[in-house]
Design goal:
With 73 residues, this protein is α+β, with helices and mostly antiparallel strands. It has one domain: 2-Layer Sandwich (Dodecin subunit-like). The protein is 21% helix and 49% strand. It has one helix and three strands. A three-stranded antiparallel beta sheet has the order 1-3-2, with helices on one face.
Length: 73
């Protein structure tokens, strides 16, 4: 049987880095979503202070996972 996947768009942030924001999104998603197969960063942004120093990194990520087979006949 062919494998079916689904993609959901999630957002998150980190005060440390873009990579940390991505890892945070994926870790939180993995709590309730099984069989995550891959991700794609859709958007990167953030906030800066008065001096132009980044204070928050934000990401929007498409997370793809395998849809489970039906347990009903």
């Amino acid at each position: 049987m062919a494998q079916i996947t689904k993609t959901v768009r999630l957002g998150g942030s980190s005060s440390d880095s873009i990579e940390d924001a991505i890892r945070t999104v994926l870790a939180r998603a993995a709590i309730t979503i099984d069989e995550i197969t891959h991700f794609e960063v859709v958007r990167v942004g953030g906030k800066v202070d008065e001096a132009g120093v980044p204070t928050e990194f934000t990401v929007t990520v498409d997370v793809t996972f395998v849809v489970k087979e039906s347990v009903h006949g």
